[in-house]
Write a structure and sequence with these properties.
Blueprint (H helix, E strand, L loop, with lengths): L1 E8 L2 E9 L10 H19 L5 H4 E3 L7 E6 L6 H25 L7 E7 L4
Parallel strand pairs: 1-5
Antiparallel strand pairs: 1-2, 2-4, 3-4
Length: 123
């Protein structure tokens, strides 16, 4: 199963983490892993292209195993209010896509994607 954590500060999405393997099909043929990866890579590309953020500073990929996805997008808190608003639209769109995948593919027999919503504690 892929675990996706959507981390918020108030209503602002500050990070999305994804880890695991859906197990929907064999490695290289798993459409759920492919869809989750595509959404996250597209969000990272949009943050770089539309918002002007440097992907080196906010996008991380690591391989824990050949089949596991392990991606992290941490939204930089920089730029104009307009840039920050655009970043939130991109992140919310990614979140909605992930929720849609979980809704459409999870069933009573097997859960392929788990969406966890968390909040950064107030200091």
């Amino acid at each position: 199963m892929i675990s996706v954590i959507v981390n918020r500060e108030d209503s602002r999405i500050c990070a999305i983490y994804a880890n695991g393997h859906a197990g929907y099909d064999e490695f290289g043929r798993d459409i759920i892993c492919s869809a989750v990866s595509t959404l996250l890579f597209t969000a990272a590309s949009a943050l770089e292209d539309i918002c002007g953020y440097d992907s080196e500073s906010f996008f991380r990929i690591s391989n824990e195993g050949e089949e596991d996805v392990n991606l992290r997008i941490t939204v930089p808190d920089i730029g104009s209010d307009e840039t920050k608003d655009r970043a939130q639209v991109i992140m919310r769109t990614c979140e909605l896509g992930l929720i849609g995948i979980a809704r459409d593919y999870n069933d009573s027999k097997k859960k392929y994607v788990e969406i966890i919503h968390s909040r950064t504690p107030e200091v």
